[in-house]
Amino acid sequence: MQHGESNARIEPRRRAPWRDKWYRIIFESDTPAGRLFDVVLMVAIVLSVLTVFVESVRSIRFRFGSVLFGLEWAFTLLFSVEFALRIATAKRPMRYVFSFFGLVDILSILPTYLSLALPGSQYFLSVRSLRLLRAFRVFKLSKFLREANVLSTALLASGRKITVFLSTVSMLVVVIGSVMYMIEGEENGFTDIPTSIYWAIVTLTTVGYGDVSPHTPLGKTLASLVMILGYSIIAVPTGIVTVEMSQAKKRADAEKSCPQCGKTGHDLDARFCKHCGAAL
Amino acid sequence: MQHGESNARIEPRRRAPWRDKWYRIIFESDTPAGRLFDVVLMVAIVLSVLTVFVESVRSIRFRFGSVLFGLEWAFTLLFSVEFALRIATAKRPMRYVFSFFGLVDILSILPTYLSLALPGSQYFLSVRSLRLLRAFRVFKLSKFLREANVLSTALLASGRKITVFLSTVSMLVVVIGSVMYMIEGEENGFTDIPTSIYWAIVTLTTVGYGDVSPHTPLGKTLASLVMILGYSIIAVPTGIVTVEMSQAKKRADAEKSCPQCGKTGHDLDARFCKHCGAAL
Amino acid sequence: MQHGESNARIEPRRRAPWRDKWYRIIFESDTPAGRLFDVVLMVAIVLSVLTVFVESVRSIRFRFGSVLFGLEWAFTLLFSVEFALRIATAKRPMRYVFSFFGLVDILSILPTYLSLALPGSQYFLSVRSLRLLRAFRVFKLSKFLREANVLSTALLASGRKITVFLSTVSMLVVVIGSVMYMIEGEENGFTDIPTSIYWAIVTLTTVGYGDVSPHTPLGKTLASLVMILGYSIIAVPTGIVTVEMSQAKKRADAEKSCPQCGKTGHDLDARFCKHCGAAL
Amino acid sequence: MQHGESNARIEPRRRAPWRDKWYRIIFESDTPAGRLFDVVLMVAIVLSVLTVFVESVRSIRFRFGSVLFGLEWAFTLLFSVEFALRIATAKRPMRYVFSFFGLVDILSILPTYLSLALPGSQYFLSVRSLRLLRAFRVFKLSKFLREANVLSTALLASGRKITVFLSTVSMLVVVIGSVMYMIEGEENGFTDIPTSIYWAIVTLTTVGYGDVSPHTPLGKTLASLVMILGYSIIAVPTGIVTVEMSQAKKRADAEKSCPQCGKTGHDLDARFCKHCGAAL
User: Is A163 part of the contact surface with chain C (CB cutoff 8 Å)?
Assistant: First the structure.
């Protein structure tokens, strides 16, 4: 949670008691009321996102347009009330508003109000799907947070290696795309270099839509090489992340040290030091 | 085997001897007769599933319809007799019926009988393919069971990490799909948000059917990013599972037991028992 | 090399000296003449396979038909002479003929002779591409043989786990295919259960041709789940093979033991035991 | 950096001081001026490559042709001046010209000049995209260089294993392609053996364009096997690279040096130096 409220607790208690009570319900989830609030909110988020999905389907919009319109406003008003409560109870309201979740909360309700001023902006409304990002709050639950931390630590630790990898892939894709544009040309669907690069990415990542594909023998030969290359170099990010995860796992496992010899590396279920035999 | 018959053996032997004999043949596979029963059953299952496959092909159904009808009833009767025998010999019949394999056994014979009452329910009949699930009984064979255990242990151990991974992927896919719906719009095949999300999954997992694909330059650019993202993050589940498997393997390898307390689970370089401190 | 000639050397030398000399040239590659023979043979194999490729292209066959016909017979006669020499010099001719490479050698020359008796059997002629399998002989070179051994050891060691994995995937694919046949039906391209299973394999392995793809909302939802499943479980074979390779590598690295304490696990460049400090 | 200028420093300083000064700016990046030069160059490279991309789009070329023509010549002149400076200041000009980056630099400016002599050679101009390869110079930055080294060491160390893997894949693909040509034939899109092999590569690497796909039941069955094979053997390069990376990581981690002989490369659990036997 990036709203950094925790270290704000040492300030003198001038706040009304209802604010503290609601703060605990809304921002925390270690009380029954807090947990209930989270569950209700999660259900409302998922239902409102499903409404957005369903509304985008033309046939449903034509038949149930008014029902969906009502539901949409109900959810918007609910989220508006929740947003107002969050501002009212937050210890540092401005900090909350400009935090990641604050901005997502605003993005979740703004499009509906804007649609009154700018009618017909239907595509723009799909931005409300971003409401689902609010569901990330569920990771407040500590057991998931820990796993999420292990994963993101491993990814960050291998960040620089992955940068080198992605830079190399980007340059490869530009060079392959340009060469393919020369070989196949506009008459075979490689209408310009950006399209050729798009094809190179589609092929190297083994996605393979087939909307652009080579027709000349030389083009097919180069495409075959690109495929085998893509098929092989996927091993590189996999290797990077696996090694980092293995390290992260080992670090977590080896955090107990022996009181006698001071050595670490014991298993989670060990009761005696495996190096000197002393009780842990 | 989830029917938990093994700890039912201590109850007093009021059962007829033929029931015990047939129980051993049908439910176990450590006698020659039991093994023969398993092999015959396996062949019947595979043949009956092939009949279901072949029957679904229009041209074959038109030409050999009556033969297939006869075969189908032959297999159904055979499996019905087998099911009756299982109920008759099982130590706790109700427990067997509501076990995983009991339900699969019922699903294997029910559709054919139902087709008498509800003629023309041809599509529904394909549920008989689930008969193949019965073949999972072959994993009773202990050598495969052990390997299957190692695999499922590794997958379960990484379950929480994989939950975090799949949640993140799900939210990514919703956000990407909604943004793509805005960019490409209905005229380019992204007819609604669910279709856009379907496209995002097809692309992120590198499946790439090509039934929906971006046409605008901006859409192709976003699609390229999604592909490279999908190509990279496949490293995450791979890393998770590899690390867990490596751990499972090590645990299995380190099963030398302590001479004093008899416990296992020591590291390869351990010189003292980590449970009781005795020298290994 | 599966022709097991090496342990045939202890038999009394009644063979003509030219046979031994040619045996060494043809079957072995540790003399300059033997190496030259291998290189010439490899070039002839690759050229003859290229001839087969080129001959299958209609426009080239029409224009250069007679040239290709001549080349084809030249290669066939060359390989026939080589085959005759192999039989003449092999220590156990029958054993060679029925070995893997013996059968491939026969398959390499037979189709051309058969085409005289059965003219017009053009498709059948493409079996001559199997000549390329003869090029596997190049792995006789010891440095590649060692790496090939490490790879095949790792694959064999994980064979049983991979069997369990592939069985599970096969059953999954049958069940998914049957359910999809019920959902989508014949009017959406899922014409019968085998086609549905083919679709399930195309999707689960993330190949994604797009020749069959779901059209109903429910079908697309199931397809999305299958894709995410396929995207995730690819981690399983990868994890299996990685762990086995890591083991194979460690075994190879840890083959030196300390003369004083007898412990192993030293690096390839170690000159002193890392456990007791004794010189290795 | 492959121009090997560093060990040329010991030669007597007959060079003009401006050459040394500019050498440091152009070839090195450890001074503020050198870093600024690198940044400006990088921006110019990226902009010029974007110009090449944009110029290849027909509609933009028709409307902004003259602007792009002017930009192109501006970049070409800029890179020509830079190239002249590099030759003038390099300690061994010829060595620079024939180094990898020297050739890329020539390829970056030559096509534009050639287009004066050979007008209409539009496709050929796309070779200018290779300019992007010059951006690889950014890896001079030491922190990336180290990561790039770890990656390339791991790939080189597994080079022989990957050669065996790719040879096996190549032969597999030829054999599968030839068999598929026999099964499906020209009327189903498998017009010749090279096309069949192209299909086999598209399928085995899980790219799956769908421009060629099997139509006969036997063909679909073989295709299914090829897909499952491709889905499984991707584990092999991944395993190879992961194991090598794990080794490379361990070596880097074990760089604590011996107090007596100063050598490094000890294991994490080593208590005695493996080179001289001294206690660590």
Answer: no
How far is D140 from D147, CA to CA, in rounded Å?
Answer: 11
User: B132-137, long-range: CB within 8 Å, 24+ apart, which pairs?
Assistant: B132/B45, B132/B46, B132/B49, B132/C171, B132/C174, B132/C175, B133/B104, B133/C171, B133/C175, B134/B41, B134/B45, B134/B101, B134/B104, B134/B105, B134/B108, B135/B42, B135/B45, B135/B46, B135/C171, B136/B101, B136/C171, B137/B38, B137/B41, B137/B101
CB crowding B174-189: b at 16 or more within 10 Å, else e:
bbbbbbbbbbbbeebe
- Say which residue the tokens 């989508």 belong to: C184
Find, among C92, C190, A49, the residue nearest to B178 by Cα.
A49
Q: Do A192 and D144 touch (CB under 8 A)?
A: no
- Which residues in C lie closer than 8 A to residue B167 (C-beta atoms)? none
- Phi/psi for A16 (5° steps) reads -65, 145
- Confirm if B273 and A266 have CB atoms less than 8 A apart: no
Task: Report residue A245 as tokens.
Answer: 């995860």
CB-based contact (8 Å) between C183 and chain D?
A: no
Distance CA D229, CA D216 (A): 20
Query: Cα B116 from chain centroid?
Result: 30
Amino acid at C72: E
Residue stretches of chain C with pLDDT short of 50: 1-11, 268
Q: Copy the structure tokens of residue C50.
A: 């290229």
- Does residue C210 belong to the interface with chain A, where contact is any CB pair within 8 Å? yes
Q: What is the pLDDT of residues D63-114, one digit of tens each?
A: 888 888 899 889 999 999 999 988 888 888 888 888 888 888 888 888 888 8
What letters, b where the CB count within 10 A reaches 16 and e where it falls short, cover C77-89? eebbebbebbeeb
Q: What is the CA radius of gyration of chain B?
A: 27
CA distance A260 to A278: 6
Residue B228 to residue A201, Cβ atoms within 8 A: yes
- Structural domains for chain D: 17-139 (1.20.120), 152-254 (1.10.287.70)
Subunits adjacent to chain C (3 or more Cβ pairs under 8 Å): A, B, D
Instruction: Pick the residue from chain A with its C-alpha nearest to B245.
Output: A246
ipTM: 0.79
Under the phi-then-psi rule, with left for phi > 0, alpha for psi from -120 to 50, and beta for the rest, what region is A135?
alpha
Q: List, in sequence order, every beta strand (DSSP E) within chain A.
A: none
Rounded Cα distance, A11 and C12, in Å: 101
C-alpha distance from A258 to closest chain D C-alpha (Å)? 15
CB within 8 Å: B144 and C160: yes
Q: Does D209 touch chain A (CB under 8 A)?
A: yes
pLDDT for the residue numbered C39: 84
Contacts 24+ apart (CB under 8 A), A43-51: A44/A75, A44/A78, A44/A79, A45/A131, A45/A132, A45/A134, A45/A135, A46/A132, A46/A135, A47/A75, A48/A72, A48/A75, A48/A79, A48/A128, A48/A131, A49/A128, A49/A129, A49/A131, A49/A132, A49/B174, A51/A75
Do B181 and A126 count as a contact with CB atoms less than 8 A apart? yes
Q: Which of C181, C210, C234 sits opposite B126 (nearest CB)?
A: C181
Which pLDDT tens digit goes with each residue over A151-195? 777 778 777 788 888 888 888 898 899 889 888 888 888 988 899
pLDDT value for B120? 61
Residue B107 in contact with partner chain C when CB distance is under 8 A: no
Q: Which of C42, C50, C123, C129 to mutate to test the interface with D (most CBs of D within 10 A)?
A: C129
Scan for tokens 């999908």, then name that residue: B230
**CA-based nearest distance C256→chain B, Å:** 16
C276 to each of C147, C272, D251, how far by Cα in Å?
33, 8, 21
D144 reaches B (C-beta below 8 A)? no
